[in-house]
Amino acid sequence: MNVFNPNQLAASDLPKSNLIIRLAAIGAVLAAIVALFAYAGGWLTPKRLTPASMIDTFEKVNGPHPGFRRNHAKGVCITGYFDSNGNGVALSKAVIFRPGRVPVIGRFALAGGQPYVTDAPHTVRSMAILFQLPDGEEWRTGMNNIPVFAVRTAKAFRDQLLASAPDPATGKPDPAKMKAFLASYPETAKAMQLIGNRPISSGFDNSTYNSLDAFRFINASGAVTPVRWSMVPVQPFAAINTTDPEKSDKNYLFDALIASIHSHPLHWHLVITVGQPGDPTNDATVPWPPDRQQIDVGTLTVDQVESEDTSPARDINFDPLVLPDGIAGSDDPLLSARSAAYSQSFTRREGEPKKPSAVSTTETEK
Amino acid sequence: MSTPKPRTQFAIQSRILHWLMAAMLLAMLFIGVTMVASLGHYHLLVAIHRPLGIAILVLAVIRFVNRLCTKLPPFPPTMSRQERFLASSSEKLLYALMFILPLIGWGMLSAGHYPIMMFGPVHLPPILPANPMLYAFLRQAHTVLAFLLFATFLAHLSAVLFHTVIIRDRLLDRMALWPTRSRQQRELPSIPD
Questions:
Q1: Is residue A43 part of a domain?
Q2: Which domain holds residue A306?
Q3: I want to staple A253 with a disulfide (CB 3.0 to 4.6 A). Which of A119, A248, A322, B189 is the partner?
Q4: Which one of B79, B84, B108, B166 would you mutate to disrupt binding with A, by most A Cβ within 10 Å of its Cβ?
């Protein structure tokens, strides 16, 4: 069907040169809009660091593991509840801090993109929690058992992934690459020392999990407080036995967690660290001074454990910026980047066929 | 009493809705395509994208009811039969996308087990059960249909520019926000099919 037919051009009664200029102008307007759209979508800048290229890097470094989270791939799901003691109300108007109980669903995991990796003491452990608030709001948070995060920005994270990737020739990371990486990111070199020197507990159940990123609490009168938070275990600390014979069991850390939950509910205190003016909120590699006020706002109880194979938590994106009114992100650049990258990982894995989790239903029912 | 002159412009509320939604839809397309490729601005843009999408859905309902209740100005004689058919079809497509895209966005977040956050504590209920494959399908559909909307917008814009700049039949006057003078311009031939 010829829409702009010659009859129409004839009807325009413009001199030919004028007509060509006008047609070219229309073409230029359309081309400009398309070019702007393409630029916004990143198609004109293939080297730009995007959520997709970030997750591509994970897939390149870890190999393809369809159906699994691209990071913190090996995990087990839990449910329980949170009892708020009301102490958080002064800092945040979020409904969660009013005295009372809310249900939680969550996940313990090991950092890294290998879903069938063997448990190891130094691997970073994580706790992800979704608080289901009575008004339908949610608070999702992912925390790690390290005192600070290793990198300050998404770009540093990508570069760290590439620097620590095993060299195909040797099967081990190239020390020269890691050295070059640390030289360009001095904040990471410092953070790695703090992370390396942390006391490592014997299991998931007696680990402290930290938010690492800073957030903002907003109270009923509108006052804004910079905060970080931690889940501090009630279970007593015991140092990990690095010569543990159980290590021969691939899932020994997860199995110990499962056994522990089966024998008695586990508890953590949710402790808010109150930042002072000048405390960096945009740099997760830097610890805040140790004398900062800490407020225990309630107790998390974990009383059920379930394999990813059956738990709805497998299909929850623990996006750190799913926050209730009264909690907001800070100027930490990692927060939006985590949100974006998690979403990309989530979208990819949800559409992929699922394989059984390393921590199977047989293990969780033992 | 003189007989009422035939309408030369869309009703004023139709014109306001048209330009308001044109700005919103274009902003939405650019926000959408920017946010999925952005790490640093992702959160801010998504936080705008969600309530803006729902606002478009609400306006689409109002606009559809308005469309059914108002009389349209006739097509100009410079539009051929095929072109009129294409214009009507693309209008239907645009209406369909104005409804479907926000509904898919809402449904996709529901299927993805996300809270449908608007602003402050305000959020919407899920409209679909949480389901991974359903989420993945709707997420893909959201992108594909957004590209279709962008393409339809470009076609619409091309047609209007062609009429306005080349044929100069004052087609754009029908949608102008201000009243336009009566057609006292040069004689325009009608287009044979």
A1: no
A2: 51-364
A3: A119
A4: B166
